[in-house]
Amino acid sequence: MTAVVETEGLTKFYGRRRGLEDLNLVIRPGEVFGYLGPNGAGKTTTIRLLLDVIRPTAGRVTVLGVDPRDARVRGRIGYLPGELTLEGRERARDYLTFLGGMRGGVPRERITRLAERLEADLSVPMGKLSKGNKQKVGLIQAFMHEPEFLILDEPTSGLDPLVQQEFLAMVREVRASGRTVLMSSHVLAEAENVSDRVGIVRAGRLVAVEDVAALRERAVRTVEFHFDAPVPREAFENLPGVRDLRVEGTSVRVTIDGRPDALVKAAARFTVVHMVSADPDLEEIFLTYYSEEGERHARTGV
């Protein structure tokens, strides 16, 4: 199948300042791709290149199989910008109805349904919308024409937690329909929740692309066992992936990287009364990429 996004050596410099350099990326049909990095890392530059808002300094890019300069591709994309400007006296509902007509006709019922899901008040004039309600209107306009490819730049900014959860449910529905989402964020938990793969960008360079399921398998977690009697320390020493072993009477606490199979088998030799396993610490993996890989790129340029 044709890639939804394919870039090769994609580079953008603003004068001498690097916005993005040597981006090689493929986004597959039907996946949610999380694009992660701190503010200023190059996420928005990437998105603007995909949308032909800016032109690359070097390299090539295709979106939905064509050059993004092809105007016909724009109607197949839904886009939420990171900085959304909505002004004027026009009501939000009228604005969305107008956009729907420009996009070939979007049923009003669909706009109403999305507004209800996001708890958006569309009777308010655009210039009087709060930050959160502007974001909701932006999400509605991105989703309402059911585009093949959704590009969402910091989509949950200004949303309360319950609305964030509804938004994530909407993203899952897009994926279930076979369509594709690129979600840019600096919030790990947000992207982890719905993404199939994540790309990590720092200082204008892509430092890693990872499968989320594989990351969870490799993630660092803390496991604590409580037994009905004291257990020997040596039963848990030198197990694959196990470190920071602490044995205190009837309890054993360890940090484990990756699969816990060997640890579980060791514990099964004794009578387990209680077990606690903390959620995988994916944050530690990402921080490792930011600190080690990013620094290596900064030093060597590769």
Characterization of the model:
It is a peripheral membrane protein. Residues 5-228 form the ABC transporter domain. Belongs to the ABC transporter superfamily. It holds the Pfam family ABC_tran. One of its GO terms (cellular component) is plasma membrane. The protein is of the alpha/beta class. It has two domains: 5-213, Rossmann fold, CATH 3.40.50; 220-277, Alpha-Beta Plaits (2-Layer Sandwich). It has nine helices and 13 strands. The chain has helices at 43-50, 92-102, 108-118, 131-143, 161-176, 188-194, 212-218, 261-267, 282-300; strands spanning 5-14, 17-27, 32-36, 58-63, 77-80, 149-153, 180-185, 197-202, 205-211, 220-227, 242-248, 251-257, 272-277. It has a six-stranded mixed β-sheet, sandwiched between helices. Strands 11-12-10-13 form a four-stranded antiparallel β-sheet. A hairpin with a 2-residue loop joins strand 1 (5-14) and strand 2 (17-27). Helix 3 packs across helix 4. The protein is elongated and about 70 Å long.
